[in-house]
Amino acid sequence: MKKTIIITLLIVAGLIGLIWLGSKNQKSPVADSGIKSALTSSEYVYDFGSISMKDGDVTKEFTVTNGTDKDITFPTLVTSCMCTKAYFVSPDGKTKGPFGMPGMGYVPPLDETIKAGESRIVRAVYDPNAHGPAGVGVIDRFITLTDTTGSSLKLEIKAVVTP
Asked: Which member of 4, 13, 29, 97 lies 3.0 to 4.6 Å from 102 by CB, making a disulfide possible if both were Cys?
């Protein structure tokens, strides 16, 4: 009996250790590269405040500007959750997207260049119904625009979702 308890405890401790080690090595699909982008934005965080599931999608447009003297090419635009879609809007009004969460279906390449001194719109669309009835409460989502050097600009949307 004692031997069975000791073996069981060792197995449980081993499993806890493996879970702990596995969680330490996980990275977010939109992990910050640690290198900040040369892009700037008029705002980096937008709080929708309280939004109702019954009212449907909410949208925020961020203006991003290349303040450098060089053109910057962006191969990717991704979001931190499937409930959030991102769109890239050109000066002529053409929209590319939707761009979503990597690993959760096909995310098309962005492959856009922002010329020196120019601005673009990154449109974030959040669907409060995406998580169903369990999706009420505080949300915090990210849209990440990464350039060819690995630098990234992270934009954030927040809200409190109500039924």
From this structure: 29
Domain that holds residue 78: 39-162
> Which pTM was predicted?
0.76
Sequential DSSP letters for 105-162: S------EEE-TT-EEEEEEEE-TTTTGGGG-EEEEEEEEEE-TTS-EEEEEEEEEEE
* Residue 63 falls inside a structural domain: yes
CATH number, position 100: 2.60.40.10
Domain tally, the chain: 1
State how far the Cα of 150 lies from the Cα of 1, in Å rounded to an integer.
Answer: 57
pLDDT in tens, the chain (163 residues): 777 777 776 676 665 755 655 554 443 334 444 456 788 898 999 999 999 999 999 999 999 999 999 999 999 999 999 999 999 999 888 999 999 999 888 889 999 999 999 999 999 999 999 998 888 999 999 999 999 989 999 999 999 999 9
